[in-house]
Amino acid sequence: MKLQRKNRRALALGALAVSGALALTACGSDDTGGNGGGTQTAAAGNIDCGDASGQLQASGSSAQKNAVDAWVKQYTAACKSVQVNYNPTGSGAGITAFLQGQTAFAGSDSALDSKEVADSKKVCKGGQAIDLPMVGGPIAVGYNVPGVDSLVLDSATLAKIFDSKITNWNDEAIKKLNPDAKLPNLKIQAFHRSDESGTTDNFTKYLAAAAPNDWKYEPGKSWEAKGGQSASGSSGLAQQVTQTAGAISYFELSYAKGGMKTVKLDTGSGTPVEATLDNATKAIAAAKRVGTGKDMALELDYATKAEGAYPITLVTYEIVCDKGNKAETLPAVKSFLGYMASEEGQGVLTDADYAPMPDEIITEVRETIKGLS
């Protein structure tokens, strides 16, 4: 119980696609404190601004967008000489922009692959890009089926739905999992991401691991299955589910708002598992570290049958150079990432439906950020 609470206090993830750059600055009349650089005090606590100043450009994961909004609001209220611009373009686009030297760091719901690490050495002079796990949480499967307030699906049925093999809500496979539900004769409208997405990468990794006989596509940031409909960003998918009868899609829990229903997963552990922060924490706490050196990439068990563990879970990484960061942005990078990883920064996550990182992980992240050069 104590360990679970500790992990809850330390785990996370997220959500929301907005087109175009978001210039996220101090929060106007709610701001407190002085101006200029130096260590200042925010209303919510102490944030070390150090020598940070100027504009900090970043882009990537839309999953963590809501978390970044909260962080930027607090940070820029304290560090008024810094403007943070985070563009939630999706993990793939974020990594590309970072590797082209357009941004100081990127957010990605998938760890860098070997080619991306090799390419990063052109940007990180004398170093390379590393993955820093910062936020986590469940990927919820939201649905809009009139008259159905509770829905259980398993990995095989989900795979067939998203591969257009099951096309109606009153299909026998769905009936078998939901004997008490009044399933309508209604066409299934399955929506997937149109943009490259770490959320898609994690969702398809789950399908491939948990339903290998029914999902024959290679997991990745781009959607490979045929059929279905698409929308841009997690917010685009959530909007489609909200407004389309018969819709089903996947996105971070923080997008499942306004009374939206989410699927309970039959993992074979007994009781179907809900998409909650606690249940995602149980899955993330069991992740294996596969990164070497300063890289902290994690490997999740998507086919877990552990009691109460929600298997469709993702970790969002901040991708940054370990060495060779641009001198003009290095102070702001260390200051802002340091705040995100701080106890105060991690503490804002649960209110936004994200899970903070476990203590043992985030402690190492903090030390790595201090050593960036």
UniProtKB/TrEMBL annotation:
Residues 52-344 form the PBP domain. Residues 1-23 form the signal peptide. The keyword Signal applies. It holds the Pfam family PBP_like_2. PROSITE patterns: PROKAR_LIPOPROTEIN (PS51257). SUPFAM superfamilies: Periplasmic binding protein-like II. Keywords: Phosphate transport, Signal, Transport. Belongs to the PstS family. This is Phosphate-binding protein. The gene is pstS.
